[in-house]
């Protein structure tokens, strides 16, 4: 197995940030935050939610980004 290259759009950086946040929350005796809370706590998911969704659910993810109205 090889790790995903940084900055290739697969959400690997976001998944690491989510994992660290989840570990810290569990160490504090709290449950793993929901996806919207993880987005706030990590400051990730501004351009797409590939990494957030990958962390929470795994599997095959197709993300079309945000519409122009959201930019």
Describe the 3D structure:
The protein has helices at 12-27, 35-42, 50-56. The protein starts with 11 loop residues before the first helix and ends in a 15-residue tail after the last helix. The mean pLDDT is 84. By secondary structure, it is an all-alpha fold.
Main sheet: strands, sense, barrel: none
Number of strands: 0
Distance between the termini: 36 Å
What is the string of SSEs from the N terminus onward? HHH
Helix content: 40-55%
The number of helical runs is 3
Q: Beta-sheet strand percentage?
A: under 5%
Return the structural class: mainly alpha
Using only C-alpha atoms, the radius of gyration works out to: 13 Å
- Uncertain runs are none
The gross shape turns out to be globular
Mean pLDDT, nearest integer? Answer: 84
Which descriptors apply to this entry?
71 residues, single chain, mainly alpha
Question: What is this entry, summarized?
Answer:
With 71 residues, the protein is mainly α. The protein has helices at 12-27, 35-42, 50-56.
List the helices and strands and how they pair.
Elements: H1 12-27, H2 35-42, H3 50-56
């Amino acid at each position: 197995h090889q790790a995903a290259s940084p900055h290739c759009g697969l959400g690997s950086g976001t998944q690491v940030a989510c994992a660290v946040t989840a570990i810290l929350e569990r160490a504090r005796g709290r449950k793993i935050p929901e996806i919207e809370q993880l987005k706030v706590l990590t400051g990730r998911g501004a351009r797409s939610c590939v990494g957030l969704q990958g962390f929470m659910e795994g599997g095959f993810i197709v993300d079309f980004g945000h519409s122009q109205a959201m930019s």
